[in-house]
């Protein structure tokens, strides 16, 4: 139905590897985005406390964190560059055909990224060199552009899942309406979901570092502060995420019923559809799972007898493979399980703080925090796997297939292997840098 | 009209990246050949605050091209996949090695990181220059990987432009670093960068001249564009600015040389763009044919105008802080 600006589909035997390569790059970049979204706000919060109270501990910690922020931002710049290249290197037909529709969002993202790079440099290198209030003010654009950048990128993802802002005539994209594509009505839930996810990940990961220190006996005021600030951000965001997750799932049910069926592995269309926990999807149904009658209808439509569209509503070519369905189900359930656990941990912390004005005392609380950091990353990646694999076989939902978008160039497996090595090296470098930073004495 | 404006925006991004990003890559050459640590320290302090911003120009170029000229973008990235991928990998290695420079605990680490930094600093501009050479010499046809995967970027024009990119970057870097050293009162380094600037400047000029001959035999149409009309005007401006740069370097007036060297490099980039008009992908796809619909172009240009209103003052402020030495510090990592 769509011809493609470069002349239509080409032979590519390594489509799966191309998809994995893209997924790998996204999985490396997205955690860094979380820190771009949420970390600057935490740093500014501390700097603001310093300006109000004059207490040097706030400043020392803010300064320390701002350097970690710069290291993570630098990693984000280089991995973001790779991603920009990859969009063209792996999916040239997608870019060639639809760049004119969704590209505006990336253009705006480019500007916001640029401003972020400028102000982060001024902020981090400007400590003690700019007047304190000017310095604090330089942090505000970092927070704003971190949010704006993810807003624009997610607008594109929302658009890929519900493409609007163009018409197709004789296989050609015509009547392009870029602003309609930019503000498609499918991305608001994704954006809020991701914004909270960023806060949860950045908060729990930083808290995990200090919780580990706490367990090793580092309990001075600055360590306590390093734990409490990020944990409070994350603990507030985690319960809210449950509500947003519900909103997201209902939006998927409305806009992409097939995708919702993939989340659950719902074979036949039915009223009062059940929800299965665990199990595997095989031959059109979930086997060995724990069945909760009518729960899917209740969750997706807030009505236990609602009709839920099953996978049988579309042909096998128009939905993910069985393996894909199982990957999506597993990821979706892992995300929900971890997210619920994080929310419970956050509520427990907030409740203790509210009632007793202190941190929980049990070492198990701190052990849980140490685990919560990495788990929040797992939940984040699982969430993206859910939405991206669940979108298959489409790159532009129900308009262009991934196989129609892929490059005709050779060498995808070699590129894939190279990238694996490169990312391991990058992770090692970032790890060494952050570790060295953490071992330097705090400068006040 | 809109298409030309969008193309102009791409050229502006390209000029900024070639000058600022190029200088950034160029520091790698001086880093690895440095005789003592004071030069490496100078490089680190000069580039630290600005390198991310300098590299965002590349992302700027990519997003403008894929939005405003999507068909050209898809054709370029699929045919030139190899050099572009290698450049992207080089950018990662370079960023990593730069960040770790000076942090290395052992001599072995130090050498390994230094070599990685230098190698990627040379390879990235080479591959990007070679890719541009492939486009300029008409070796990127419209289509999904329709051109030759190798000869599209390993040919006389590509290799020449790749080499020019490397040497030009080194030259601009020597000027910028010399100016920074002058401001900081590091007289020994000023002398060292004077020699390096003059040497690399002469080589860059010679390569540029040789490049004209390569282009004459390989891409006659481009040569005609460079030797007539607006293209010729740019070449002349570049030559004059280049000679002025050498004269300023001779007299160690680096602060002024910053601007002449930027003019020399920027005008040759503009000259190439003007010389291949009206084509985006010579010899078949014109700027107008490659362009997105007017609705997209208008939206993009309006957003770019608004974005530049924010971006330019911020960038000017960053560079003023940096050039006045206020962000220069010994302890930043």
Give an overview in words:
- The complex is a heterodimer of chains A (444) and B (333).
- Chain A is mainly alpha-helical and 444 residues long.
- Chain A is 71% helix and 6% strand.
- Chain A has 13 helices and ten strands.
- In chain A, the strands form five sheets. In chain A, strands 1-2 form a two-stranded antiparallel sheet.
- The radius of gyration of chain A is 23 Å and the shape is globular.
- Chain B is an all-alpha fold.
- Chain B is 80% helix and 2% strand.
- Chain B is built from 13 helices and two strands.
- In chain B, a hairpin with a 3-residue loop joins strand 1 and strand 2.
- Chain B is globular, with a radius of gyration of 20 Å.
- Chains A and B meet through helix 2, helix 3 and helix 13 of A and helix 3, helix 4, helix 5 and helix 13 of B.
Count of helix runs of chain A: 13
Helix content of chain A: over 70%
Mean pLDDT of chain A: 91
What would the principal axes of the Cα set say about the shape of chain A? globular
Query: Pair with the most extensive interface?
Result: A-B, 78 and 70 residues
Helical/strand content category of chain A = mainly alpha
Number of helices of chain B: 13
For the largest beta-sheet of chain B, the strand count, sense and barrel status come to: 2 strands, antiparallel
Order of helices and strands of chain A: HHHHEEHHHHEEEEEHEHHEEHH
Report the principal-axis shape of chain B: globular
**Level of helix content of chain B?**
over 70%
Summed up, the domain count of chain B is 1
Report low-confidence residues of chain B grouped into runs of 5 or more: none
What is the arithmetic mean of pLDDT of chain B?
89
Q: Which strand order does the major sheet of chain A show?
A: 1-2
Q: What percent strand of chain B?
A: under 5%
Strand content bin of chain A: 5-15%
